[in-house]
Design a protein that fits this description.
The structure is a homodimer. Chain A is α+β, with helices and mostly antiparallel strands. Chain A has 3 domains: 120 residues, DNA Polymerase III, Chain A, domain 2, CATH 3.10.150.10; 107 residues, Roll (DNA Polymerase III, Chain A, domain 2), CATH 3.10.150.10; 112 residues, Proliferating Cell Nuclear Antigen (Box). Chain A is 17% helix and 44% strand. In chain A, the strands form 5 sheets. Chain A has a 9-stranded antiparallel β-sheet. In chain A, β10 and β11 form a beta hairpin. Chain A is elongated and about 80 Å long. Chain A starts with a strand and ends in a 6-residue tail after the last strand. At the A-B interface, α2, β11, α5 and β23 of A face α2, β11, α5 and β23 of B. β23 of chain A pairs antiparallel with β11 of chain B, so a sheet runs across the interface. Chains A, B: This is Beta sliding clamp. Chains A, B: It comes from Sporosarcina saromensis.
Chain lengths: 376, 376
C-alpha cells in the first residue's frame, strides 16, 4: 500500500473515527482503524461493539485532488496513535505499508515508522440486503434526533428505553424517547410507504448528529434484522438495534386539557433554570409552576439549606380553567424547552397528578410529556 | 445592608473569588464570600488557606455608576451558591441583608431569599506594615511568572520547590523555579534597591496571572514575615509564603559551552512535541537531539510499542565543537520553549551528562536548564 493524502482531510476523518473506536481492547486490532487504498481513493473504518463507521475519501473533493494512490492495499493502524500524530503534522502525508504491515508515514522532513496489523484480521462488516430504504435530508433527521434523544433513559434497567425508537408508518417517521418519567415524540412527513419500527442505541444516534456533512446531504436508512445502516455519499454507519418490547406510547398523549397556557419559551427556560439552583439538594430539582391569575405564572422552588427563589412571568395566552399548579423536575422541563425552537410554547395541564404536555404553540408534530413529582 | 450593583461587574468579581474559595469546609463560613457595603462602594473577599483575595467595586467605573449603596453593612454568603445564581441573572441586582443575616436578592421579576452568615465571624486578614514596597507594571510581573512557574515541582516532597522564588537585589528582580531536573530563571530590571528573597506558592502566583486588569496597571508588592501582599487599584492578594531552604542556584548556569546552536524556536517546539508522542510508554518522554552536521539537527524518539519518529531541522547558526548529542525529557523541552517568545532560540551543550542551557538567542535575562536523561 502506498498513497499520498491531504493532511487536513485525513486528520479530520481519523479524529471522527477515533471517537468511536474502542479505547483499549484485549484484541489490539479492534481498537484500530482499517485503511484501504484502492483506485477510487481511501476507505477508513473504525468502531465499537455498537456501531461501525466507514468513511470514504475520494480521489477528488470539490474539484481538488486530495488523494493519490500509488499502490493499492490495506492495513490496520492503532487509532489513538494515528489520531494523535496526525494532529501534529501538516501538509501532504505520504503513507506506505509493506507486506509485514510495517507502516512508514512521511510529512515534509518528518519520518515515522510504526507497526500495523494485517487488514484481513479486522472484523468484516455484515452486509445488509434490505430492499426498502428511506431517504431523508440529513438536517431533518438530525433535528428529529436532537428533539428526542435527551429523553432516553440514562440507566440500563430497561435497555430498550436507552435507545430512540424510530417508527415508520406510511408517509411519516415518528421518533420517540422515554425514560418512564417523561416522553418526547417528534413526527416527520416522509415520502415512503415503509412500515416498520425499531430502537436505535442513543450512542449511534449521537453519531448521526455528529456527522459534519451539509444538512441537505441525503441520508439513506436501511434496516434488516438487528442491524441499521445509515449512509451518505462519504459515510456509512452500521449500528446494532436494541431488542426488547418498547412500551406502548400510543394513547399516552391526552387529547384534551383542563387548562392550557402559552408562554415565552426562552424566558420560561431561563426562569426554570434559575429555580433549579435552589432545588438541587434532594437531587430532584423540584420546581413549582403555579398560575397566579390568568395573566401571570409564578415559577418557584425552595430548599431548607439554600433558601428560596420566586419569579413571575407573563402568560401570553390562556384557555380553560384557572387552576394550574404542578411540581415538576425542573431539569426535565429545561431539556424539554431546549428542544423547542419556536418563540412560544404551550403547556397543557390535566390536574396536579397527571403529566403535563409541552409543545410549540400551534403545532402538534412535536409533543413532550413530563410526569409531576409527588411532593409529599 | 442594602445596595444595587451592576450585574455583569458583580458576577465577574464573584466568579473570580469563587475560584479561590474553599469548596467544602467544616466551618461553612470559610467557604463563603464576605461582602462589605460602605459609602465608597463594595468590597468582596474570598480565599483559602494559602491566599485571600479582596476585590473592590467602586461607586463609579469609567465614569459610569455601577454601585448604589442605600445602607452600609456586611454579610457573608456561600460562594458556590451566589456564583451560580449570579450567572443566571441579568441587569441590575438589588441586595439586602437584615440583622439576622437573611439575604434578599432581586433582579427584575426574580426574587431570592437565602441565608447568610455574620460578617464578624469571617476571619480577619492580617495587616502588613512593611515599609518598602516594590511597584511594577502588572504585565511585566505576569510575564516573569509565566516564564518560570511551569518549572516548579509538582510533588510535595520538598515543599519549597513547589513555589516560585522571588529574589530582589538592588535594581533587579529574579524569578526562579526548579524541580531539581530543570530550572527556569528570569531577570527583570526594577527601580528599587530592595534586598530580600522569598518563595511564593505556585497557586498564588497563578492568581496574579489570572488578574483581568490591564497590563499597564501598577502592582505593588509588599512582604513581611511569612506574608506577601500584592495590590492593584481594585484587587488585593494576601498570600502565605513557603518557608524552608531554597537550593542555591547561583553558579548552576554554566558560563561557557562546548557547542552552541541556534534554531527556529517554534519549529523546534513542534518537532519535539511530535517526538513526545513516540516516547510516552515509560512516562519519560525521552527525546534525542543530535547534530547531523553543522547545518542540520535530528530530533528523534522511539518506543518498542509505538515505533519511531525522526525529523531533521536546519541549524540557523552554530558555534563550537561538532559533537552534540543529548537525550532529554521532551515535555520539559516543550515547556521551556513555550516560555520563550523570540523567533530564535539558542541551545548550549556541555557534554551528554551535563544540563543544556536554553535561552532566547542574544539575551541572557531569561535562561533555562534541563538535565539530560540517562538512557542506560
Amino acid at each position: 500500500m502506498n498513497f499520498n493524502v491531504d493532511h487536513s482531510i485525513v486528520s479530520t476523518v481519523v479524529s471522527e473515527l477515533h471517537k468511536v473506536c474502542i479505547a483499549r481492547s484485549v484484541i489490539p486490532i479492534l481498537s484500530g482503524i482499517k485503511i484501504v487504498a484502492s483506485k477510487n481513493g481511501l476507505k477508513l473504518t473504525g468502531g465499537n461493539s455498537e456501531i461501525f463507521i466507514e468513511k470514504t475519501i475520494p480521489l477528488e473533493l470539490n474539484g481538488e485532488k486530495v488523494v493519490e494512490v500509488i499502490e493499492e492495499g490495506s492495513v490496520v493502524v492503532q487509532s489513538k496513535f494515528i489520531n494523535e500524530i496526525l494532529k501534529k503534522l501538516s501538509g501532504n502525508v505520504h503513507v506506505q505499508a509493506d507486506l509485514n504491515n510495517a507502516i512508514r508515514i512521511q510529512s515534509d522532513e518528518v519520518v515515522m515508522k510504526i507497526p500495523g496489523f494485517c487488514a484481513e484480521e479486522y472484523p468484516k462488516l455484515p452486509e445488509v440486503h434490505a430492499q426498502q430504504s428511506v431517504e431523508l435530508p440529513l438536517g431533518t433527521i438530525k433535528e428529529a434526533i436532537q428533539q428526542t434523544i435527551f429523553a432516553v433513559s440514562k440507566n440500563d434497567v430497561k435497555p430498550v428505553l436507552t435507545g430512540v425508537r424510530m417508527e415508520f408508518e406510511k408517509g411519516k417517521l415518528i421518533c420517540i424517547a422515554t425514560d418512564s418519567n417523561r416522553m418526547s415524540r417528534c413526527e416527520l412527513p416522509i415520502p415512503s410507504e415503509l412500515n416498520k419500527a425499531f430502537v436505535v442505541p442513543a450512542a449511534s444516534m449521537l453519531e448521526v448528529i455528529n456527522l459534519k456533512e451539509a444538512d441537505a446531504t441525503i441520508l439513506s436508512i436501511l434496516q434488516e434484522g438487528n442491524l441499521l445502516v445509515m449512509e451518505t455519499e462519504h459515510t456509512k454507519l452500521v449500528s446494532v438495534l436494541i431488542e426488547g418490547n418498547y412500551p406502548v406510547t400510543q394513547g399516552l398523549i391526552p387529547t384534551g386539557y383542563m387548562s392550557s397556557i402559552t408562554l415565552h419559551r426562552k424566558a420560561l427556560q431561563n426562569g426554570v433554570d434559575r429555580a433549579c439552583v435552589f432545588s438541587r439538594e434532594l437531587k430532584h430539582n423540584n420546581v413549582l409552576l403555579k398560575l397566579c391569575d390568568r395573566t401571570t405564572i409564578s415559577i418557584s422552588s425552595s430548599s431548607t439549606e439554600m433558601g428560596m427563589i420566586e419569579e413571575r412571568q407573563k402568560v401570553v395566552h390562556m384557555v380553560g380553567l384557572d387552576s394550574f399548579e404542578i411540581t415538576l423536575d425542573g431539569k426535565y422541563l429545561v431539556e424539554a424547552l431546549r428542544g423547542i425552537k419556536e418563540e412560544f410554547v404551550e403547556i397543557q395541564f390535566n390536574g396536579a397528578m397527571k403529566p403535563i404536555v409541552i409543545k410549540p404553540a400551534q403545532s402538534n408534530t412535536y409533543v413532550q410529556l413530563i410526569s409531576p413529582r409527588r411532593t409529599h
